[in-house]
Each structure stands twice: as C-alpha cells, then as structure tokens.
TrEMBL record:
GO terms for biological process: protein quality control for misfolded or incompletely synthesized proteins; rescue of stalled ribosome. This is Peptidyl-tRNA hydrolase. Its EC number is 3.1.1.29. Transmembrane segments: none annotated. Monomer. The active site is at residue 23. The gene is pth1. The record marks 13 as: Discriminates between blocked and unblocked aminoacyl-tRNA. InterPro entries: Pept_tRNA_hydro (IPR001328), Pept_tRNA_hydro_CS (IPR018171), Pept_tRNA_hydro_sf (IPR036416). It holds the Pfam family Pept_tRNA_hydro.
C-alpha cells in the first residue's frame, strides 16, 4: 500500500427499513471504523454517499456509505474513487457474505463476487477486480428460505449482541493495513 489515501466503502441499503439487517453489515462496520477514530458522517452530494474523513496512523482514510441500493452501489464507489483520486488498489469494500459463518471476517484483494450483486456492480464500475474486499460472514439462510429474503431480515437478538464485536473486528483488519 502506498501513502495514497485509503477509501473504505461499506455496502448496504439506505433508509430505516434496512437498518440492522444482514445486508447492511457493511454500513455497520463502516460506522464503527469512523466512530472509533472520531469521524462523523455527512452528506457528500458529488458522490451520492455519506462520508467521514479520518486518520489512521498518519494515513488519510475516507469512510463512505453510498446512498444507493446495494445492487447498484458501483457508481457511488467509482464516483468516490474519482473525487478523492484513489486507485482501486487503495479501495476496501465491506460487504455481507452468505458463504461465511456469522461473525467471521476476512480481508482479501481481488477475486470473484460469489454472486454478490454489490460486488459485481462495483467491479463493473471500477473496471477491475483488484480492490480489497472485507467480507463479514452472515451465514446461510435456515431451511429453504431464499437468500434474497434472508439478507433483508433483521439480525436475531443474539446476533445483535455480537454485532459490535464483529464490526470492531472488521475495523481492526482495516487498521492493520
């Protein structure tokens, strides 16, 4: 990584209807990262996102939550990268991951989208897969529940109790970069 600013984008869906749903764990982790470094989100009209600027060990970090729906968030990620002049190699996208156990977090660079429409749209908008993905495991849906329905359901009470720890773990991975 260079001294170029780091862009961290939490994926989710805007509005109170989607707060505390599994699909919005990217927003939750982004909020934890910003809060833990004294950052406050404000509307950034040119990029259609809420943005907090923080500093981690002397490096400028732009933390963002697009105001678009998850499946079309790539345009906002691209607008943020262009506005702040950040290359894909210095972008981290935080997202929910069905194929990981609830509570597991993993940071990797590049790779496929694993059927995640937010990642697919981001890859298309950036024109490359070479950005970081911070996956936050939400587990598989129970029984025969459709994955699309599962990701939009609120967390269970026990999961909500663990959510701050998971978001702190995600923030820790970014801080270690």
């Amino acid at each position: 990584m260079s001294s170029e600013a780091l862009l961290v984008v939490g994926l989710g869906n805007p509005g109170p209807k989607y707060e505390r749903t599994r699909h919005n764990i990217g927003f939750d982790a982004a909020e934890e990262l910003a809060k833990s470094h004294g950052g406050n989100f404000s509307a950034h009209k040119r990029t259609n996102a809420d943005v907090a600027e923080i500093n981690i060990r002397g490096r400028k970090v732009i933390v963002a939550k697009p105001r678009t729906f998850m499946n079309v968030s790539g345009g906002a990620v691209k607008a943020l990268a262009n506005y702040f002049k950040i290359s894909p190699a210095n972008i981290v996208v935080i997202h929910d991951e069905l194929d990981m156990d609830f509570g597991e977090v993993r940071l990797r660079r590049g790779g496929g989208d694993h059927g995640h429409n937010g990642l697919r749209d981001t890859t298309k908008a950036l024109g490359t897969k070479e950005y970081y993905r911070l996956s936050c495991g939400i587990g598989r849906p129970p029984g025969r529940m459709a994955p699309a329905a599962f990701v939009l359901k609120p967390f269970a009470r026990k999961e909500l109790e663990e959510l701050p720890i998971i978001c702190a773990d995600a923030a820790d991975l970014i801080e270690q970069m």
